[in-house]
């Protein structure tokens, strides 16, 4: 690297992918800048992972207060101050994005404010200024996909960003178009806050990508909680009238059309990579037809000193994937032998109970030619789950038959995302079901259900009969 | 694939990976043998003394595969519960109850 | 085994150690009986692990309802129906003990009701009947230790069993004698239910056995929640008077004595092994002066066909240790090469936040001669913790300096017991801090704090500055 560059590394985008890359590069002694046109923290901190989890927690506390009657705790009139709720959520976002700003300062990452676009493969214009860098990391993320016929106005028809602002009063009738993770998280929030919620999904199953058994259990529980789920259904158009938003729904199997009326409609039909205004072609960087900028396992684009991380690089569009890729890109630039070699990328729906998984689903394992065995342990047999008033769900393990190698773990249950820690490490360590079954798990914990699922693989679970 | 690897033992990674010197016998100064649970179980099954096994993981961590190859090579190609080495002094042999 | 025995295995005691042994032995095809003089499930299910966790959950829901005001959720007059609370807790116990009974039936374990005592090394009398068995497993558990001067009457002066019945009204002033796990769990319950609670501990630190930094953080949080903690203090005597129980407290350092008045006093100063009426000498089984029946790593007593598991065998007196030992004993009897070879036995205080640990404390690691490095990640920097309104605490990792080998994990925080799954598996797998740091952890989860603590060991945590 010659002295003629302004920076060793210039990162475009300060979402989880970008800020992880910038901080790690700085930790490794490089001179780093990070350009961001909106707020540091990206989608995840500002309008994604974090504010959704805040609303989910609030909604769950409302449900918990209701369930407290089971053990004799009752409350008088309950009241929810919506302005305070939105303010509390925004406060958390502010604290976290402020934290990222402080980390930039402390790590001596130069924060460039403005829209970044390539001038050439070593030069980027940010606002009015032009900067050169030896290496450049593209971390421009993604944005909500649009749905023709349902124009987002962020008040009655919203995307995930608009849905994060809870209206006062809470809408009585809510439609979530799209039965993916985001659709279900918002459905859960609005349902707990008193809305009557319907989710529609084009495909035959909700939460595509998750294990079929787990999804079935999950959907059953969500239905029991009052969320109406309609699969193989699409929304054709919406019309705002005095009594609400009239939405034409179509059963994609029968072609049957009906009109239903809602007070708020969420469009959550996926996300698409974001490269607008980036002028990637000026750097000679390949952008696919669908808008992705592909990267290799060292996060390199087709131009060797230009790296790509996060949502703009590939699916699945998840923050932890972006973070990992950000670290890898920074380390590769610093000359370290890093590689994005994750065995599996975990997925979580942060409802209550949660749906969380890591590794292969039963169907994927079979598709890949594995001979498998499975083990399932229902939370209804867990003492800890009973004391938490949360016995809906199970832990399912997918294991290679002959070798006992763990292939995937699928959990529907309280704190499922916390239990993923063990499952994820097990997969990365190439652990067997026996390794988990032989490991002492504290009693009484939800983690014992992971142990019991491993025992169930060997037909030796203690607290259920093994068929 | 029937062993236990680790990200640390694979090609590359992030983080400050402290690489162990060449894998050696797994017994450590404090007597702990670094072996994954399934490898410990298999060693007992095969009557293999874990301190004799060369672990192929970081810090000489013994994986299932290491015990299997020791069982095959280290003991002259003989494996199976019949070929028990002398049991650890403190542990009497389990009685086998024919059903 | 000759045909002359009534059973292949006779288990004495149906606590977690005993029922795990009985069920596993039956799963392995053995003819099994299990003798129990009280209720199946032992201390753990009836008056230990489970009912405490039920009360803890109830108490935490009261605290959660209070904290809900932070995000705008408020309630009118709150009321707690104590009879319903006790009934709910008892219902969970009944369901679980009923479950164990059903598992006995389904696995064809003969349940013998009554006090068991040895006639000889192959013969046990249960009630009026005498049974012979090829192998015998002693799983008789433990009972609360007594404290001279504080006679337990199970109403105003209680042990853990008495404390499980919440009185109506909740006592205004509560003293917990003993700052161990049980003392803190009850202190937390009563504090959340409105009592003014004081804990006294003879030693200079509460929760002996846990990491000093973790204990310090934990005690700070408990104090903040309103629990008064006095270390190096003992209770000499208690006198019941019209205005309450007058307890003489003594500062063991200065010798200073004071009298304080309480409405309920819990004596939780440890537990002792239980062998009363067992007549172990008739079988030639060694009982130590302190009442333990020692076992080797295959759970064998000095008499080769008599096994010992759980609290009666050794410290720590924890259910998961009893369970593991029960499985080992059953498998050894069935001719399997099982061994109690756990690298570490996890410990948990199920308060909110929880204190949970597995493996060596910093002090223990140094004592054993390890050169170590540590990594700490505070939950105040965790986005997930913020959304859960639970940012008190941290994850601390103790790691061997040269090899990066993980030695211990110490967590103060929400769901800490769930995070132990990963930590425990890591220790058993002889994982390094790098193994954890390189494993993708879902965002936003509490498990990311485990990842960050591992990164902190290498001075590469992202969300804090690494000194
Ligand atoms: C409602 C919702 C909930 C979600 N929940 C989760 C969850 O719980 N867990 C999870 O793992 N994932 C979740 N996600 C997905 C997660 O937010 C993304 O995967 C993650 O933000 C991707 O990170 P990134 O760094 O690739 O991009 P982004 O977070 O999208 O950040 C890209 C940044 O680049 C900036 N930028 C773009 N172009 C330019 C330019 N030309 N010049 C300057 N700046 C530019 C943008 O302003 C933005 O700040 C959620 C998403 C949504 C919408
Ligand atoms: C309040 C409290 C909370 C606790 N919380 C936890 C926790 O959260 N996690 C944890 O791991 N541990 C906890 N423990 C400890 C846990 O309960 C014990 O470690 C566990 O019960 C030990 O199991 P065991 O099988 O050895 O014995 P026990 O559970 O004591 O069972 C022994 C059984 O044997 C029966 N018995 C005894 N002698 C005879 C005889 N001669 N004939 C017939 N039957 C006999 C008894 O009636 C009893 O049912 C807690 C303990 C208490 C008191």
UniProtKB/TrEMBL annotation, chains A, C:
Residues 345-453 form the Pyridine nucleotide-disulphide oxidoreductase dimerisation domain. Its cofactor is FAD. The active site is at 443 (proton acceptor). It catalyses: N(6)-[(R)-dihydrolipoyl]-L-lysyl-[protein] + NAD(+) = N(6)-[(R)-lipoyl]-L-lysyl-[protein] + NADH + H(+). Keywords: Disulfide bond, FAD, Flavoprotein, NAD, Nucleotide-binding, Oxidoreductase, Redox-active center. Residues 7-326 form the FAD/NAD(P)-binding domain. One of its GO terms (biological process) is 2-oxoglutarate metabolic process. Its EC number is 1.8.1.4. The keyword NAD applies. Disulfide bonds join 44-49. It comes from the Bacteria. One of its GO terms (molecular function) is dihydrolipoyl dehydrogenase (NADH) activity. FAD binds at residues 53, 140-142, 311, 317-320. It holds the Pfam family Pyr_redox_dim. The active site is a redox-active disulfide bond. Belongs to the class-I pyridine nucleotide-disulfide oxidoreductase family. This is Dihydrolipoyl dehydrogenase. It comes from Deinococcus koreensis. The gene is lpdA.
């Amino acid at each position: 690297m010659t002295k003629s560059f302004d920076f060793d590394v210039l990162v475009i985008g300060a979402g989880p992918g970008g800020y992880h890359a910038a901080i790690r590069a700085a930790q490794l002694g490089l001179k780093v800048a990070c350009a961001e046109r909106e707020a540091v923290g990206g989608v995840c901190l500002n309008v994604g992972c974090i504010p959704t989890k805040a609303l989910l927690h609030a909604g769950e506390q409302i449900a918990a207060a209701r369930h407290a009657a089971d053990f004799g705790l009752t409350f008088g009139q309950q009241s929810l101050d919506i302005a305070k709720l939105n303010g509390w959520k925004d406060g958390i976002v502010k604290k976290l994005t402020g934290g990222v700003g402080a980390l930039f300062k402390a790590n001596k990452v130069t924060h460039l404010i403005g829209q970044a676009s390539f001038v050439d493969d070593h030069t980027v214009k940010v606002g009015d200024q032009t900067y050169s860098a030896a290496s450049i990391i593209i971390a421009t993320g993604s944005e909500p996909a649009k749905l023709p016929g349902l124009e987002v106005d962020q008040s009655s028809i919203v995307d995930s960003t608009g849905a994060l602002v809870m209206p006062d009063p809470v809408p009585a009738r809510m439609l979530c178009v799209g039965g993916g993770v985001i659709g279900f998280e918002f459905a859960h929030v609005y349902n707990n806050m008193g809305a009557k919620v319907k989710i529609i999904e084009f495909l035959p199953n909700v939460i595509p990508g998750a294990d079929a058994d787990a999804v079935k259990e999950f959907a059953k529980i969500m239905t029991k909680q009052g969320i109406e789920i309609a699969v193989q259904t699409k929304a054709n158009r919406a019309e705002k009238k005095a009594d609400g938003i009239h939405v034409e729904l179509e059963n994609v199997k029968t072609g049957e059309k009906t009109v239903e009326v809602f007070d708020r409609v969420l469009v959550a039909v996926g996300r698409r990579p974001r490269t607008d205004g980036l002028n990637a072609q000026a750097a000679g960087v390949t952008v696919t037809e669908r808008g992705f900028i592909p990267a290799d396992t060292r996060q390199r684009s087709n131009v060797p000193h230009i790296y790509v991380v996060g949502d703009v690089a590939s699916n699945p569009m998840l923050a932890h994937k972006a973070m990992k890729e950000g670290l890898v890109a920074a380390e590769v630039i610093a000359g370290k032998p890093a590689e994005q070699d994750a065995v599996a990328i975990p997925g979580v729906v942060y409802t209550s109970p949660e749906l969380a998984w890591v590794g292969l689903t039963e169907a994927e394992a079979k598709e890949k030619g594995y001979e498998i065995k499975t083990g399932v342990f229902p939370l209804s047999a867990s003492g800890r789950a009973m004391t938490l008033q949360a016995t809906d769900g199970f832990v399912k393990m997918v294991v290679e038959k002959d070798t006992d190698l763990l292939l995937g773990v699928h959990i529907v249950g309280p704190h499922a995302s916390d239990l993923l820690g063990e499952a994820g490490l097990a997969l990365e360590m190439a652990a067997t079901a026996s390794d988990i079954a032989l490991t002492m798990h504290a009693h009484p914990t939800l983690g014992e259900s992971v142990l019991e699922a491993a025992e169930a693989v060997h037909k030796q679970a203690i607290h259920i009969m093994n068929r | 694939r029937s062993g236990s690897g680790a990200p640390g033992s694979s090609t590359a990674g992030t983080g400050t990976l402290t690489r162990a010197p060449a894998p050696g016998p797994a017994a450590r100064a404090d007597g702990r043998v670094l072996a994954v649970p399934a490898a410990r179980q298999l060693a007992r099954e095969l009557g293999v003394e874990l301190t004799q096994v060369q672990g192929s993981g970081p810090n000489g961590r013994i994986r299932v595969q290491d015990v299997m190859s020791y069982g095959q090579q280290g003991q002259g190609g003989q494996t199976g519960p019949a070929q028990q080495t002398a049991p650890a002094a403190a542990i009497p042999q389990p009685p086998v109850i024919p059903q």
